[in-house]
Design a protein that fits this description.
It is built from nine helices and no strands. α5 runs antiparallel to α6. The protein starts with a helix and ends with a helix.
Length: 161
């Protein structure tokens, strides 16, 4: 079973169960598909325009907006690298974390950037909601169990994605 089949089965289950609590995330992914636009003239405004709902921890959003105020071009380059599929996914995730941690450290020494795997998975899903999906690990695990799928333990970040 490939990931597209798994997602298709998941969507059918949501439709059948009427789980309206999950609908908002699909609406956000549709609305913000292709975002953030790394080619936007004003990248700070691009970041400010995004509404992540409750998909991101509020401090992840606040830090992202702070970084965009002080280092908009460097943040743009971090996102450009994150979205570049020429590099392995785990490498892109690790590099994005390294870059955003460094950028925030320059603004607020000793504080966390809160740009973790969960945040990064949402950025990737916003940018490419067709191939990357934002499903909570707990929900996906429950679905996998009820579907008789074998569990495997990949890297946490790539499993989240």
């Amino acid at each position: 079973m490939d990931s597209l089949d798994l997602i298709s089965r998941y969507k059918k289950r949501i439709q059948k169960s009427g789980n309206q609590n999950e609908l908002y995330k699909w609406e956000l992914l549709k609305k913000y598909r292709g975002k953030p636009d790394v080619e936007a003239d004003d990248f700070q405004a691009e970041i400010a325009s995004l509404n992540f709902g409750n998909l991101l921890y509020h401090l992840s959003v606040a830090v992202l907006k702070d970084i965009s105020k002080y280092s908009s071009q460097d943040l743009r380059e971090a996102f450009r690298y994150l979205f570049d599929e020429k590099h392995p996914l785990q490498q892109r995730i690790d590099e994005f974390k390294r870059r955003t941690n460094s950028l925030f450290e320059a603004i607020t020494p000793g504080k966390s950037s809160f740009q973790d795997e969960r945040s990064i998975s949402v950025y990737l899903a916003f940018f490419d909601g067709i191939n990357i999906h934002c499903i909570k690990v707990r929900i996906m695990g429950s679905f996998a169990n009820s579907s008789g799928l074998k569990k495997r333990r990949p890297e946490k970040s790539t499993f989240i994605i």
